[in-house]
Amino acid sequence: MAFTGHEDHTIPIEEGAALTAEFRKKFSTQPKGYFFSKDTIQSMLDQTGSVGIRFYFGAASDGKLKLVFVGVESNENDIITETVGDSGFLCPPNCGSTNVLNS
Q1: Beta strands in the chain (DSSP E)
Q2: Are 44 and 36 a contacting pair, CB within 8 Å?
Q3: What φ, ψ does residue 53 adopt, rounded to 5°?
Q4: N vs C: which end of the chain shows fewer Cβ within 10 Å?
């Protein structure tokens, strides 16, 4: 299957809330999420041939889950010749207001 960059990955907020609630229940000592800036995400999308972004799960030396992300070409290959992303701001403490995705 070739990627086009127009795939729809949206879900209703209720489904997202259920997924994040289940994660918090099973992995209560892990971060709830990470914030990545628009500029960082855009830099992945602006790479030559990029039609999207792939997120990989990683782990820091302290055992906390991390996300590593990379631009992806239409042939499904990662763009590993340029920058990859990490070092997002942890939630908590950077969660913003309490809502159905983070409470």
Answers
A1: 33-35, 50-59, 65-73, 89-91
A2: no
A3: -130, 140
A4: N
Token representation of residue 22: 């289940």
pLDDT tens track of the chain, all 103 residues? 788 888 888 888 898 999 989 999 999 998 888 888 899 889 889 999 999 999 998 888 998 888 888 989 999 999 987 677 776 887 888 788 888 888 8
* Residues 52 and 42 sit within 8 Å (Cβ to Cβ): no
Question: Does pTM surpass 0.85?
Answer: no
**Alpha-carbon dihedral angle through residues 77, 82, 83, 84, given to the nearest 10 degrees:** 20
What ranges do the domains of the chain cover? 31-103
- How far, rounded to the nearest angstrom, does the alpha carbon of residue 13 sit from its chain's CA centroid? 17
